[in-house]
Design a protein that fits this description.
By secondary structure, the chain is mainly α.
Length: 166
């Protein structure tokens, strides 16, 4: 199982390199050196930075790669107006971001690079909810719950009618 996970991680890294190679040719800065501009999620940054360094080493300074960290939304905004070539994201692109890309003639391909994990902790000062199940987390974070599940009682009827706070 670990071999399979590692294979997918390597495939993701190679996919990022492949996308970098595909985007190098049309992007040239004023000095004539091809530049690949990447920005977006801080979660994806360490992977991108490592691959960018390896790629630049392979190209022996013939290609410049810049990597920024403006967050997923900030990265999509820059990407969809043509300021960057690659957008690091820790979530799928939203409909409004797709529309902005379309408006600006930006075609794109989503390439999963890695999956991250989160840790859920119940605050010890929270006396109403002392533990939470995966199914309950799904009720909170499901796409269809956005803007509609706003109270603990909507997640579990045994819980109080108090607002969810982040």
């Amino acid at each position: 199982m670990n071999l399979k996970k590692n294979s997918w991680k390597l495939a993701g890294l190679f996919a990022l390199v492949a996308s970098t190679v595909a985007l190098v040719a049309p992007t040239v800065n004023s000095q004539g050196t091809p530049t690949v501009r990447i920005d977006g999620s801080s979660t994806v940054y360490p992977i991108t930075e490592a691959v960018a360094e390896e790629f630049q080493d392979l190209k022996k300074n013939a290609v410049r790669v810049t990597v920024g960290i403006s967050g997923t939304g900030g990265g999509f905004k820059k990407f969809c107006i043509g300021e960057t070539d690659i957008s690091d994201a820790s979530r799928p692109i939203k409909d409004k971001e797709k529309a902005l890309c379309a408006k600006n003639g930006i075609d794109y391909m989503a390439i999963p690079v890695a999956y991250d994990a989160i840790t859920v902790v119940v605050n010890k000062g929270n006396t109403a909810v002392t533990d939470i199940k995966v199914e309950e987390l799904n009720k909170i974070w499901a796409p269809e719950s956005e803007g509609t599940v706003t109270k603990w009682s909507q997640v579990n009827s045994a819980w109080p009618d108090l607002p969810l706070s982040w």
